[in-house]
Design brief:
The chain has about 575 residues and is mainly alpha-helical. About 70% of the residues lie in helices and about 0% in strands. The chain contains 24 helices and 2 strands.
Amino acid sequence: MATTAQFRHALRVGPPGDSWHKPALSAVLTLGTLNLTLLALGRLDLALYTSAGGLGALYGHGLPYRARARTLASVLLGTVLSTAAALTAAALTRDAVVLVAVAAGLAALHRLGCDAARVGPPGSLIITFTTASCAFVPQRPADLPPHLALTVLGAALAWLVCMAPALLRPYGPERIATACALEAAARLARTGPDGSDPAARTALVGAVDAARQSLALSSPARRRALGDAPERLLVHAEAALAALAAPTTRGPDPAAGVAPAAAPAAAPPAASAAAERYAGWARDLRRGRPLPLLDLTGAEAAELRAHRPEPRPSLRRALRPGSALLPIVLRVAVGCAAAGWLSLALGVGRPYWAVVTAASVFQANSTLSWQRALQRVLGNLIGLALFTAALPVAHSGPVALIALGLLCQFGAEATIARSYWLATVFVTPMALMMTEFAGRQPAATLVADRWLDTCVGALTGLAACLLVTNRRTATRLSHALAGAETATRQARAAVAATETSGVETSGVEAAAARTGLAAALLELREAAATATGEWRRPALPHQRAADTEQHAHHLLATLLERRGAGARAV
C-alpha cells in the first residue's frame, strides 16, 4: 500500500531544470515555422506529419555539438523509419486491432533503442506519440511519399534549429556540464564541515563524470580554444570530496590493508568560502567569460595527463541476454497492446491515446511506474479542464489554435523537470489541439475519449508491471556490487602505491583506480535504487551495498587527498 508520504513524493514540484529553455525554444521555433508555413499554404491538416519530424527538436540539448549532430541524426532517422512503418500499416489495413499491435510493437522498439543508446530526455515517448497517431490516420498508398517527405522536412528543420547555437557558442554544452559539476561541489560544501552526505557526494561524482564525458565528446578544436582550463576546474571540483571529509566519518575499511589518511575537518568558514569559489567559477562558465587557468599539484597534473573517461555501457551490453532492460521492453509491448485493445472494446475512437499512456507509465521499476501513472492521471484531468477553458479561443481561428499549441508546448518543456504531472497539464491540451488541425472535433467526445483512454492506459500499464516481473534488477545489483568491490580493491592498491612510489610518480595508476572507482560507485547507486523499487523481487543485500559504497567513498577521498598534497603550480 502506498503511504501518504509516497503520494506527496510522487506529486512534489521540484526546482526548474537546467537550461530548460533550450528544448522549449527549439521546439516552438521548429513547430511554429512548420505550422505557419502549412497555414499559409492552406494545408494545416498536414501538421501531424511535419510535427512527427519537428518534435525531434526536443533532443540532444545537453550534448556537445559534434556528438549532438550524430545523436540527433540517429533519433530523427529512427523517427522517419517508424513513421514510415506506421503510415504503411495505415495504408495496408483499417483493422484497428492490427494497428494497435503495430503501435505497441513500435513503442517497444522505441523504448529499446532509446534506453539502450541512452538517448536522454525526452526518451522514446515523443516518437511513440507521433508514430501511434500516424498509424490511425487513414492513408492511401499514393499518399505515403508526400506525407513521409513532410516528416523528413520537419526532421531536417529540427536538426538545423538544434545545431544553430553552435554558431554563437560552439562550446556552450561543455561549459554548462563543467558548471554543473562545480555547482554540485558547492552544494556538497554547504552540507556541513564533514561533507558526509552520501547523496551529495554521489551527485558530485556523477556530475564530474558527466562533465568529463562531455569534454571527451567535444570537438578537437575545443582544446585549442579553451585549453585544459575546464579539466583543471573539474580537478578542483572533485577535490571537494576530499577537502570536506572529516576523520570521524572515514573509519578504516575492515578489509583494507591501508587506513584512509586522516585530515582535519574543514571549518565552516572555509567550507563557505569553497562553496562561493565553486559557484563563482560556475557563473563564469555559464556566462561565457574567460576561464581561469588554475594551479595543480604535481600529482593532479599527472592524473590530468593520464585520465581517460570511463566508457559508457555499450549498446550490445544493454541488449545482451539477462539485461534488466529487456523485461521493461516486454512490459511496454504487452501493456501498450492490452491498453489499445481494451480501449477498442470500450468503444473509444482513438485507442492510440491509451497506447501512448501505457508507454508513458513504464519506468525503470514498478514503484516509479505507479508514481508515473498517478502523475499522468492527475495531469490529464487538470489538462482536460484547461483544454475545455481554452477551446473558445482555439476555435476563434487557425492562428489562435497554432499559438495555443505552441504555448502549451513551451509550458510542457518549462515544467517537465519540475514535475511530470505538471508538464502533463500542458501536454494534454496540446495533444488535443493537434487533432483540431485536421478539422474541428466534437469537444465532449474528445474530452471523454481522452479521459477514458488515460485511465485505461494507466491501469493496464500497472497490470503489465505486475504480470511481467523484472527480477533482473536484483541480478544487476549483484553485478554492480561485485564490480564496486573489485574497484575498491584496486583503489586500495593505488593508495598503497602512493606511499611507496611517491605521489607524482603514481599518477597513471591512481587516475585509473579513481576513474574505475567513481564509475563503480555510480553504477552501484543506480542499480540499488532501481532494484529497491521493483515489486516481486528477491531479497537484496542492502547492508553489503551500503558498506561497500561507504568504503568506496572513503578510498576515493583518500586518493583525492593524496593527489592534492604538495605545492601547487600552473
